[in-house]
C-alpha cells in the first residue's frame, strides 16, 4: 500500500514537471533577476521542509501536544509520546489553544492510539470546558476543532459534550460559523488582518479542516481559504517578513518581525527566510496542503517594484460607532530592497495596532531592527470599550494585566484616534493632532541603531542609510533624541506633529550625499498653526497634499476611498463583496470563487 | 364563598410562607482577572455557591466569564447565566449546563427569566437583545427600535408578561409587547448599567448609570427621576431593592463603595469605611437575615454588612472580581 502511494507521488511530481516546464516558458525566464526553480523543485523543497519540521517535533520531546502528534504521525517514540499525552491530559488547559493541538493529536493518532487512551481523550470533551474566547482567531480555532471532533463522534447526545449540545448541534453550529467567517472575510476582509503574530492561528484551523474534514466541500473551502490567506501574505512578504500595517503585533515582534508565526510559515512554504520550528507551521506541514506554484512566485519575485492595496475591516465594534466593521484602507509599496506600508490611521484595532512603517531587507532577517516608524501611544477606556464589553472605567486596568505595555507611554504598538496617514508609492505623510488632555501627549519614532548612518541636516531632514535603502524623514515639529538599548527614540511632545517620509534605493545614487541633495531639492511646505498640513513633491514628481481631518490629494485629485478594492495590485485582484479573488503572476492565473466553491487556473496563451 | 376566601388567602400567603420556610442560597459569579489571558490558564472563574463563613463551592464551568445569574421563581433548579460564550442553562441546579445559544450570540451581559412564565427569557448582549419563548430551545433577535444595540442590562416586569425594560449605551428602552419593539424611556440618553424592580411593589424600579448615578421610577418605568445628593454623578454598576422592604435600597459602582437608602431612594448615604476596594459590581440583600447586605467587589471578593454599611465582614473569594450576586430560594 505504501509503495502504491510512493509511486503515485512520484507520478504526480513527474506530471507536474511536464506541466510546469510548459508554464515556465511563459514569461518566467524573461526576468533575469528572478530565477525560480522548476515547480517540481519547489515542491520537493517544500516537502523536505515539511519533513524536517515533523522530524523536529517528533524528536524534540518538549512534552507538548505537538510533539505527541509528530511522534504518532511518524510512528516513532510512541511509548514516550503516550506517556506525555497521559500527563498532558491530567490538566487540560488553554481553551481553544488546547483544542487545536488536541485535535492534531486526535487525528494524527486515530489509527495508532490505544483504545483506552482514545476513551480518555473522548472523555475530556465532556469534562473539560474550553471557552470560546473573544477574538476572531479564537473562534476560528474553536469552531474548526468542534467541527472535526463532532465529525468523529457524530451521534453523541448533549450529555457527552462539555457544552451540553449534541454532536449534531455542535457540528452544524461550527459549520455555520466557519462558512460565515469565510464569507465575511472574502467580502469585507479579515478584522484581525495581516497580523504576523496571529497569522498562524488562522492557518492552523484551515489546515486542520483541509486535512481531516470528511465533507469534501468543507475540505475544499478550507483549501481555498489557505490559498487566500497565503496569497494575502505573499504580496507583503519581504524575505519571510510580513510587512506593512498590521492589526495586531507585539512589542518585541514589531521591532523584530521575524520572531513571528508568519515568518515560520513563510520558511515552510517558500524557504525564503531562516528556519524556525513553529507549531503553526507544523500543523500545515502535516495537512497535505501544497501551495500553488503561483503563490511561490508572488512571495519571492521582487524584481519589479509594485503598489498593493487592500481593504480590511475593524474588529466588531460594540459601542461608540455607527459601523460594526469600519473599513481599513491598507497601502503597501514593495520592492526587493524595502517595503513601505500603512493603514489610514485611527482606532482600527484595539491595543496592538501597527499603523505604518518602512522595513528594509537585511542579509539575515532574523536579526530584526530593520524598521522605522512612529506611534502615538494612545491609551483609553474609550478605545477598549469600543471593542470589548467590559466596564469602561475598569477596562484599562484589566487589559494591562495581560497586555502589559498597553498603558505605557513608551509603547511601540498603538492605535490612535489622533493619527492620520497617506502614502503614495515610496513617500508617506503621517499627521498627528493630539488634544492637550490626552493621557500620553507625545509621539515616538523608532530609529534602530543598526542603521548604517543617521544624519540630521540643518534643513530638518533626517537622512538614514539602511542597508540597500536610503530613507529621508522630515519631522514636522521639534523633538529630542532619546537613546535606548537598540534604537534611538525620536521623542516629541508637540501636539501638532507628524512626518514626511521618502525612501529610495541606494543603487539609484552614486552616494548617500547625492540622495540627500535630491531630497533637499524637493518642494515641501508645512503648516502647524491650526491643523497640521503638508504639501510635498516627492522624488518621482508626485504632489502630495494632506491636511489633518481632510481627504488627502495626490497630484491634485482627492484619494477616493470609496472605490478601494478588497485586493488591488499586480498580483491580487478582488472587488468588495465579490467573494472572488483572482491571483495573477505574469501569464499564470488562479481564481478562487467562494460563492461557487470553485478554483480555476489558467495560463495566458502567447 | 368561604372556599374562595380561603383559596385567595393561601395564594396571598404562599410567597410569605415560602420565604419563612425556604432557605435562600447565595450565588455569585466571579471573574478572576489577575493575569487572566484567554487560553493561558484554568482560573476558577464562574459560579460560586456560599457555604458559610469564607467558604465557597465552585459550580459548573471553570474559566468562564459570567456576568449575570437568574432563576425561575417557582423552580430554583432552572437557572440561566449570561456569559461570554452565550446563555447557559441548567435544569438541575447547576449539575449540568447547556449553551443554549449558538455562534450568533456572544458577550451576554444580562439575563432575565420572566417570573410569570419561565419559558420567556431575555438576554442583553453587546449586539442587542435576544429572546426565547421556549426556555432556551431557540432564540431570536429582538432589536426593533433599539439603537444603538449595545445592551448591558434587561429586566422583566414581574407584574406583566408584556413588559420588559432594557438599558444600554444610550439609556433605557421599554417594550410593552414582549420585546417585539422598543421605545426609549428615562430622562437621559446615558449608558445604563443595571436595572432592578421590586416584586412586592412592581411600580418601583431602579437603574444604575454611567456618571449619572441612580434613576428611579415609581410608575413601572413610564417616567424616571434622578436620585439626588452625592450619588447623582457617580457611575453605578449595580442597584438592589430589599424584596420585603422596598424602602431599603443599595447602589454601588466605580470607586463608590456602597450607597444605601433607607427611605425609598429619597436620600442616599455613602459607605466606604472598612472596604479595601471601592469598586462594587455585586449587591444583594439577604432574605435570610433581615438587615444583611452583601457586596461583591471588583478585586477583593465578597463582604457583608449587618449595620447598613457602618462595618463590613469579609466573606471570602480573595482577589475575585465579582460581577453579580443573587439569592436563590430553595
Features:
heterodimer; A: 606 residues; 2 domains; 13-stranded antiparallel β-sheet; globular; disordered N terminus; B: mainly beta; 4-stranded antiparallel β-sheet; 28 strands; 6% helix
Descriptive account of the structure:
The complex is a heterodimer of chains A (606) and B (330). With 606 residues, chain A is of the alpha+beta class. In chain A, helix 9 packs antiparallel against helix 10. Chain B has a single domain, classed as Methylamine Dehydrogenase, Chain H. Chain B has 1 helix and 28 strands. Chain B has one helix spanning 2-21, and strands at 24-31, 46-52, 55-59, 66-72, 75-83, 86-90, 98-99, 108-114, 117-125, 128-132, 140-141, 151-156, 164-168, 171-175, 183-185, 192-197, 205-209, 214-217, 225-226, 236-241, 249-253, 258-261, 269-271, 280-285, 293-297, 302-305, 313-314, 321-329. The longest helix of chain B is centred in the N-terminal third of the chain and has 20 residues, at 2-21. Chain B starts with a helix and ends with a strand.
What is the topology?
The complex is a heterodimer of chains A (606) and B (330).
Chain A: H1 2-24, H2 39-59, H3 65-74, H4 78-90, H5 96-108, H6 115-127, H7 136-152, H8 167-188, H9 200-212, H10 216-234, E1 237-238, E2 241-242, H11 261-270, H12 279-287, H13 293-300, E3 306-313, E4 327-334, E5 338-343, E6 356-360, E7 371-375, H14 381-387, H15 392-402, E8 419-424, E9 427-433, E10 443-448, E11 453-456, E12 462-466, E13 469-475, E14 480-483, E15 487-492, E16 496-505, H16 512-520, E17 524-527, E18 533-537, E19 543-547, E20 553-554, E21 557-558, E22 567-568, E23 572-574, E24 580-585, E25 588-593, E26 598-603
Antiparallel strand pairs in A: 1-2, 3-4, 3-22, 4-5, 5-6, 6-7, 7-10, 8-9, 9-16, 10-15, 11-12, 12-13, 13-16, 14-15, 17-18, 18-19, 19-20, 20-21, 22-23, 23-24, 24-25, 25-26
Chain B: H1 2-21, E1 24-31, E2 46-52, E3 55-59, E4 66-72, E5 75-83, E6 86-90, E7 98-99, E8 108-114, E9 117-125, E10 128-132, E11 140-141, E12 151-156, E13 164-168, E14 171-175, E15 183-185, E16 192-197, E17 205-209, E18 214-217, E19 225-226, E20 236-241, E21 249-253, E22 258-261, E23 269-271, E24 280-285, E25 293-297, E26 302-305, E27 313-314, E28 321-329
Antiparallel strand pairs in B: 1-2, 1-28, 2-3, 4-5, 5-6, 6-7, 8-9, 9-10, 10-11, 12-13, 13-14, 14-15, 16-17, 17-18, 18-19, 20-21, 21-22, 22-23, 24-25, 25-26, 26-27
Amino acid at each position: 500500500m505504501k509503495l502504491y502511494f510512493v509511486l503515485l507521488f512520484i507520478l504526480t511530481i513527474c506530471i507536474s514537471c511536464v506541466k510546469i516546464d510548459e508554464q515556465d516558458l511563459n514569461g518566467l525566464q524573461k526576468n533575469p533577476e528572478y530565477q525560480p526553480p522548476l515547480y517540481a523543485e519547489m515542491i520537493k523543497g517544500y516537502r523536505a521542509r515539511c519533513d524536517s519540521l515533523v522530524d523536529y517535533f517528533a524528536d524534540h520531546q518538549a512534552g507538548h501536544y505537538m510533539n505527541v502528534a509528530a511522534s504518532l504521525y511518524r510512528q516513532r517514540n510512541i511509548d514516550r509520546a503516550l506517556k506525555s499525552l497521559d500527563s498532558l491530559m491530567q490538566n487540560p488547559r488553554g481553551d481553544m489553544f488546547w483544542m487545536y493541538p488536541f485535535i492534531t493529536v486526535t487525528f494524527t493518532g486515530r489509527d495508532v492510539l490505544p483504545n483506552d487512551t482514545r476513551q480518555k481523550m473522548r472523555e475530556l470533551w465532556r469534562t473539560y470546558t474550553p471557552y470560546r474566547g473573544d477574538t476572531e482567531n479564537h473562534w476560528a480555532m474553536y469552531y474548526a476543532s468542534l467541527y472535526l471532533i463532532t465529525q468523529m463522534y457524530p451521534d453523541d447526545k448533549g450529555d457527552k459534550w462539555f457544552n451540553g449540545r449534541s454532536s449534531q448541534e455542535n457540528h452544524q453550529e461550527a459549520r455555520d460559523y466557519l462558512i460565515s467567517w469565510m464569507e465575511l472575510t472574502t467580502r469585507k476582509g479579515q478584522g484581525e488582518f495581516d497580523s504576523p503574530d496571529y497569522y498562524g492561528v488562522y492557518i492552523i484551523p484551515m489546515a486542520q479542516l483541509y486535512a481531516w474534514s470528511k465533507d469534501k466541500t468543507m475540505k475544499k473551502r478550507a483549501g481555498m481559504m489557505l490559498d487566500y490567506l497565503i496569497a494575502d501574505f505573499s504580496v507583503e512578504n519581504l524575505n519571510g517578513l510580513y510587512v506593512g500595517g498590521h492589526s495586531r503585533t507585539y512589542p518585541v515582534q514589531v521591532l523584530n518581525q521575524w520572531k513571528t508565526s508568519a515568518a515560520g510559515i513563510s520558511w515552510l512554504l517558500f524557504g525564503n527566510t531562516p528556519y524556525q520550528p513553529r507549531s503553526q507551521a507544523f500543523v500545515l506541514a502535516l495537512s497535505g496542503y501544497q501551495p500553488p506554484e503561483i503563490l511561490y512566485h508572488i512571495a519571492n519575485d521582487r524584481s519589479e517594484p509594485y503598489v498593493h492595496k487592500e481593504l480590511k475591516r475593524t474588529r466588531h465594534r460594540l459601542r461608540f460607532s455607527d459601523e460594526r466593521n469600519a473599513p481599513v484602507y491598507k497601502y503597501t509599496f514593495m520592492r526587493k530592497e524595502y517595503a513601505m506600508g500603512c493603514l489610514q490611521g485611527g482606532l482600527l484595532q484595539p491595543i496592538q495596532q501597527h499603523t505604518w512603517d518602512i522595513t528594509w531587507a537585511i542579509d539575515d532577517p532574523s536579526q530584526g531592527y530593520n524598521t522605522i516608524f512612529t506611534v502615538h501611544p494612545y491609551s483609553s477606556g474609550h478605545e477598549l470599550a469600543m471593542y470589548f464589553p467590559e466596564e469602561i472605567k475598569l477596562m484599562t486596568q484589566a487589559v494591562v494585566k495581560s497586555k502589559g505595555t498597553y498603558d505605557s507611554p513608551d509603547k511601540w504598538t498603538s492605535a490612535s484616534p489622533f493619527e492620520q496617514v497617506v502614502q503614495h508609492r515610496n513617500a508617506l505623510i503621517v499627521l498627528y493632532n493630539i488634544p492637550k488632555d490626552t493621557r500620553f501627549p507625545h509621539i515616538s519614532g523608532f530609529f534602530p541603531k543598526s542603521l548604517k548612518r543617521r544624519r540630521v541636516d540643518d534643513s530638518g531632514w533626517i537622512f538614514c542609510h539602511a542597508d540597500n535603502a536610503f530613507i529621508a524623514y522630515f519631522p514636522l515639529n521639534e523633538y529630542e533624541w532619546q537613546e535606548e538599548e537598540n534604537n534611538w527614540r525620536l521623542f516629541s511632545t508637540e501636539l501638532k506633529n507628524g512626518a514626511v517620509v521618502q525612501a529610495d534605493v541606494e543603487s539609484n545614487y552614486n552616494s548617500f550625499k547625492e540622495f540627500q541633495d535630491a531630497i533637499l531639492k524637493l518642494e515641501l511646505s508645512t503648516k502647524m498653526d491650526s491643523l497640521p498640513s503638508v504639501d510635498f513633491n516627492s522624488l518621482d514628481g508626485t504632489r502630495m497634499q494632506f491636511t489633518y481631518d481632510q481627504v488627502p490629494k495626490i497630484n491634485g485629485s482627492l484619494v477616493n476611498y470609496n472605490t478601494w478594492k478588497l485586493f488591488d495590485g499586480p498580483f491580487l485582484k478582488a472587488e468588495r463583496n465579490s467573494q472572488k479573488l483572482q491571483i495573477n503572476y505574469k501569464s499564470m492565473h488562479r481564481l478562487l470563487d467562494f460563492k461557487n466553491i470553485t478554483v480555476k487556473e489558467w495560463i495566458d496563451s502567447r | 364563598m368561604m372556599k374562595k376566601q380561603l383559596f385567595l388567602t393561601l395564594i396571598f400567603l404562599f410567597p410569605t410562607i415560602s420565604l419563612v420556610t425556604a432557605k435562600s442560597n447565595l450565588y455569585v459569579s466571579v471573574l478572576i482577572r489577575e493575569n487572566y489571558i484567554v487560553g493561558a490558564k484554568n482560573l476558577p472563574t464562574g459560579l460560586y455557591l456560599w457555604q458559610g463563613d469564607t467558604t465557597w463551592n465552585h459550580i459548573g464551568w471553570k474559566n468562564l466569564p459570567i456576568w449575570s445569574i437568574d432563576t425561575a421563581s417557582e423552580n430554583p433548579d432552572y437557572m440561566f447565566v449570561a456569559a461570554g460564550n452565550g446563555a447557559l442553562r441548567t435544569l438541575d441546579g447547576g449539575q449540568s449546563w447547556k449553551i443554549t445559544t449558538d455562534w450568533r450570540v456572544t458577550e451576554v451581559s444580562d439575563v432575565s427569566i420572566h417570573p410569570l412564565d419561565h419559558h420567556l427569557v431575555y438576554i442583553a448582549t453587546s449586539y442587542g437583545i435576544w429572546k426565547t419563548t421556549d426556555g432556551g430551545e431557540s432564540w431570536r433577535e429582538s432589536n426593533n427600535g433599539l439603537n444603538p444595540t449595545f445592551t448591558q442590562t434587561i429586566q422583566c416586569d414581574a407584574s406583566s408578561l408584556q413588559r420588559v425594560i432594557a438599558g444600554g449605551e444610550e439609556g433605557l428602552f421599554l417594550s410593552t409587547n414582549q420585546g417585539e419593539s422598543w421605545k426609549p424611556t428615562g430622562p437621559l440618553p446615558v449608558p445604563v448599567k443595571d436595572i432592578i424592580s421590586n416584586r412586592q411593589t412592581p411600580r418601583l424600579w431602579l437603574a444604575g448609570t454611567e456618571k449619572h448615578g441612580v434613576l428611579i421610577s415609581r410608575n413601572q418605568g413610564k417616567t424616571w427621576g434622578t436620585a439626588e445628593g452625592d450619588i447623582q454623578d457617580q457611575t453605578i454598576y449595580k442597584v438592589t431593592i430589599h424584596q420585603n422592604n422596598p424602602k431599603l435600597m443599595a447602589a454601588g459602582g466605580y470607586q463608590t463603595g456602597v450607597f444605601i437608602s433607607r427611605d425609598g431612594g429619597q436620600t442616599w448615604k455613602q459607605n466606604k469605611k472598612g472596604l479595601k476596594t471601592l469598586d462594587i459590581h455585586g449587591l444583594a440583600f439577604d432574605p435570610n437575615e433581615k438587615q444583611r447586605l452583601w457586596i461583591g467587589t471588583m478585586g477583593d471578593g465578597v463582604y457583608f454588612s449587618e449595620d447598613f454599611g457602618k462595618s463590613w465582614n469579609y466573606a471570602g473569594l480573595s482577589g475575585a472580581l465579582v460581577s453579580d450576586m443573587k439569592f436563590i430560594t430553595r
